[in-house]
């Protein structure tokens, strides 16, 4: 590649890990957003917005091992700033700053992560998050159950195929770590490793625990037994009787709440999709209670985000088809922003909207998607009727009708009709000398060529 | 302030020049967006989206003197990135990259400028832009006139009070600079100075031209005569006869097109608000033809963005009440991104949505604005009815009805009713033992206390 070519390529390129949305993609995006926002509104949520960048220290110490993925702005004099990494930390900062103790809000906006886009297919450095959170001191598990109800509603309405919602609780995980002999200061890092079970085999996960994180093989094997368990309310009941796990107060609290959660999920009619799964860990540091993640279970619907490590020798069945929603309870985060450490309990869910977009796009690739909503095209068969076309179009616009007219003095009728075909405009109003004299307009249905 | 206080303040603060939107502000924002998007859709526009950051070189050399206000990202390894400064340059890059030669699109998104927020009131470092552009080779002034029609429709529908749309043409300005004796290499910088006439007195503008930019006093005075002129199609006709100005081919081309523009504006029924104003310059480098700016003319509606220089000794009447829309033709920008310099003529308009928000907010400050759309609150007067409340709420949600329920086992009826009052929920469904036995629900209209 010579210098000129390099320059040309640069002139026209986007930065790595980002993308434009074309009109067709935007039409799909709008449809998806409308479905999701309708659901959030049905559940009584308000919405807020926060800036795309925050003070660097606002984001510091909130994301554990992922903090290295935060984008910083250049120091151009003034404050040190970072691009938001998610919508949850800005939400917590917002609550603390405005001393808000209860709110049910959704927030749909872009977040930024310096991930390696080549390594993890389908992941972008700029992507939408779509969050619903309930903040406030309430009776246990009621708002938590509503979050799961919302995931169930949205995934059903979007019609993405079969899905499953895995739930677990950080208190159960921590109790499990404790009884398995993990030192307390290693809970979070071991938790991060367990979180990789959806992308890596147990062998690889165990390997990381023992060889990288210095856990004893015995403790790792203990963990391995627990994280293979899946079930429903019955599993929670059984584990409450488990000789080892029941020694942990924390685990017992988590297991009792899990039972309560399932009782509300029954009332909400969503237990068909929810599984209590002890291998679910979630990477983020700030969760304190219930955690959940929804995955699509129809293999092949969407390319799985397989990392190169997972591809090397990992068993097929351990590869997750793709998480499309996740969340949990984080009762300590708001307090981190409050000078008096006043806590505001929160629970929320984030819809993995980018994954949803790509599935919808794949589905729509065969169909024709309209990218405008134009109802009428104002056309003419004869020359020198620009003024009349513009006049009629003005009347239509002023009456609130979506109308288009070609920006040419003398366009060909064929090219005007072709435009209607291309962009799916259903009606065309055809002007002619005779019609103008009679004070009428010919209206043609594009599909049938019927005229009135 | 002691160290601990500093730390506390930092914990809770936002970066300078940015702000959160609370639910009430978001409700207003949604209303404004809906009005604007409806108008764009009525005119047949599609929408696209581009990343919030672009390669640094994409933005380089597009914004003239304002380039210093571009936010750069920190070099964390990889490409050099900048936050978008407007939506026009990314649009041009998008067209070139995808070899699109005609499109009518709108784009609503946030842009970033390292402006001094303390000096210029009402200006933020992060703010929304709301752009409509028409790209393509068409007959002159038809798309240009449609842009002005759109501004007229939007400002009328938003009901912001009296407004005026100033129009001018870069070719008229350049022709004027030429006949006034401005050297060609100073056109753009003198143009930037003329652009300040809405914030500074003529005296200050002249001073900057002569003392800072090295223009002769004679040339400055010549310019001063022209830039005081305002009119309509008649002024364009008169200037075509102007002994000096008519010597410039460029000016004549601009003036002829101005006449043509006004003829289309008459058909579109918008000449009541449009003024041909020779003092309008617009700061950006990339305009090549028609330029325009809409200002609100009812003083006191909104705090004027008065810079400190302008306040010192500037005459009241020179202070603009506030630009709420602006745009123009930029036929060269797309070619800057194309390796073969293929031009795609473009014309567009940007709605000054942040200004619109603050006016709407001021208007709404007295009224009660609903921030949710909940139709029914499911309540109970007696204890131990949580399960029944949740069941009814589930039925409502499943039927697509916006419903809320309190996350308490035994909430007081009064606090449930109070929540309805506070958030404007019109109906409350009250459950009781007796009603459950009879298989009915009492439905109360909150405002009238009527029950059925």
TrEMBL record, chains A, B:
| Enzyme Commission identifier(s) | 6.1.1.21
User: Which protein are we looking at?
Assistant: histidine--tRNA ligase
One GO term in the molecular function aspect is:
identical protein binding
Xref: InterPro entries: aa-tRNA-synth_II (IPR006195), aa-tRNA-synth_II/BPL/LPL (IPR045864), Anticodon-bd (IPR004154), Anticodon-bd_dom_sf (IPR036621), His-tRNA-ligase (IPR015807), HisRS-like_core (IPR041715), HisRS/HisZ (IPR004516), HisRS_anticodon (IPR033656)
Residue positions binding L-histidine: 86-88, 113, 129, 133, 282, 286-287
Gene3D superfamilies given for it?
A: Anticodon-binding domain, Bira Bifunctional Protein, Domain 2
According to its UniProt record, this protein's enzyme class is: ligase
Q: Where is the Aminoacyl-transfer RNA synthetases class-II family profile domain?
A: 16-379
* PANTHER family with a match to the protein in the record: HISTIDINE--TRNA LIGASE (PTHR11476:SF7), HISTIDYL-TRNA SYNTHETASE (PTHR11476)
User: Which CDD domains does the entry mention?
Assistant: HisRS-like_core, HisRS_anticodon
Taken from the UniProt entry, a GO cellular component term is: cytosol
